[in-house]
Amino acid sequence: MRTLTKVGLAVLSGLLIAAAWPVRGLAPLAFVAFIPLLYLQDRSRGIFLLSYITFAVWNTLTTWWVWKTTAFGTIGMILLNSLFMTTVFWAYHFVKTRLYDNKKGYYLLIIFVLAFEYLHLNWQLNWPWLNLGNVFSHYHTWVQWYSITGIAGGTLWVLAANILIYKFLLASFRPQRSGVEKSSVFYAIILLLILFIPLIISKIMYFSYEERGDDVEIVVVQPNLDPYSEEFTFSAPKILQRNLSVAAPLVTEKTRFVVSPESAIQENIWLERISNYFSIRELRKFLKEYPQTCYVIGVSAYGLAPDDSENDFAARKFYDADKYFYAYNTATLITKDSIQTYHKSRLTPGAESMPSWWIMRMFKNSAIDLGGTVGTLKKDTEAKTLSFDNHQVATLICYESVFGEYVTEFVKKGADMLFVITNDGWWGNSPGHKQHLEFSKLRAIETRRDVARSANTGISGFINQRGDIVKQSKYWEHTALRGTLKANTEQTFYVRYGDYIYKIAVFLTALLAAMTMVRLIIKKRKNA
């Protein structure tokens, strides 16, 4: 096979995956996207470089919009994430070659990718944005069974379909000999079952599902502050006015929650005296007129660190004192006489956190400057619900809404609704904010919780328990929306058992690694 042909097939795989990706992608392409790469793995040397081309194309075409925040960081992110994915595919190639002489063992790809996606959800360089199960966010009626499997079920579906279609093509086009026709028919039958049974089940679940829970009236605010020129330069009164001017006309005696976006309050608030700040005082005055209502809003906050915290990776030293403090990305729930807080726990790599590995500790406060607090933030160690009027809510701050199993921790603690507060304005009018909205639909399905979404520049709105967007704002519009959510208290199978598919894959990966090592040791001794 010529080099140009190999490179062309590698590029084709990357283009097909990217063309399947939300929001304008055609998701069915995901079922065939890996076939050129599987063909290369079967027949070509240099699979590491070829697969790197595939994953670099995919990463570039689907996450280029991060460029709007940092050009250098985006290049590094794409190169590094492509390397991670390539390493996984190479590991599949290595083990398949050692255990099966490269003649079978395609199932290994499913196991290794699932294990990698679980890692990418749970380590310090997490970036699950491109986990394959997310590809169906724009086709949410196809994956209602995410309430059982989470997005891992979607990843398994995509890879299984690719492998079966590839094997069907091999069986159909190889030279005719006894048993070939039977083989191609066999793969065709299995393929049809794999493709259509999950789809049929999902459609049945979608049309038969009935929303559960009591009605709760919510107002979501979209202040539409340009994060590059307004959000961090406007005065506190002006920013608060941008929020309250559109919220107040929509609040009724039935309204229980008003929700404003991430980092909507920029007063360098110290948590030890949070009640003393202008924005907090004015919000509590506002709520005295609506005692039946609470206000959920994002705050950039600080807090004093304990005396023995100098070795805490998130601790920052005062310039003029031998003491330390923390910076937080915080969600607050404010009533006329109380304040609750939750600190963002799933931090954005590069912008809000740096790895705490020993070689990286010198860079802990060198994160990407997006106009607010720079460097590694302090986070809550567990999911923490905020409560009002017999309701508990999961207040997911921006990036946290991509982590399915983490969201279930809020639900296990009683959250009957999901709020997503975010500032997607950094990415401009690009696919970034649209993809982020789409992923919230998957969280709604996994947990069967209604979602209220407040985004600084959009898109804000409401999503029901089936993943339908029932009301939404336009992008880059100063507005507010009023909607009614159902407060569901029942738990789905996925809420109860979390990422069990991913965890099984991790166990199997460890087992396969051990088997491969044993095989290599035995082979080495025989050749000695």
Short description:
With 528 residues, the protein is of the alpha/beta class. It has helices at residues 3-20, 35-43, 47-63, 71-100, 107-122, 146-149, 151-173, 180-208, 236-247, 278-288, 404-412, 431-447, 493-497, 500-527; strands at 214-222, 255-259, 265-270, 294-304, 316-317, 324-334, 339-343, 386-388, 391-397, 417-422, 451-455, 461-463, 469-472, 479-487.
How would you describe the overall organization of this protein?
This protein is of the alpha/beta class and 528 residues long. The chain has two domains: 3-208 and 500-527, no CATH class; 214-298 and 331-345 and 383-497, Nitrilase/N-carbamoyl-D-aminoacid amidohydrolase (4-Layer Sandwich), CATH 3.60.110. Helix content is 43%, strand content 16%. It has helices at residues 3-20, 35-43, 47-63, 71-100, 107-122, 146-149, 151-173, 180-208, 236-247, 278-288, 404-412, 431-447, 493-497, 500-527; strands at 214-222, 255-259, 265-270, 294-304, 316-317, 324-334, 339-343, 386-388, 391-397, 417-422, 451-455, 461-463, 469-472, 479-487. Strands 1, 2, 3, 4, 5, 6, 7 and 14 form an eight-stranded mixed β-sheet that branches. A six-stranded mixed β-sheet has the order 8-9-10-11-12-13, with helices on one face. Helix 1 (3-20) runs antiparallel to helix 2, helix 4 (71-100) runs antiparallel to helix 5 (107-122) and helix 11 packs across helix 12 (431-447). The protein is globular, with a radius of gyration of 25 Å. The two termini are 35 Å apart. Residues 368-372 have low confidence and may be disordered.
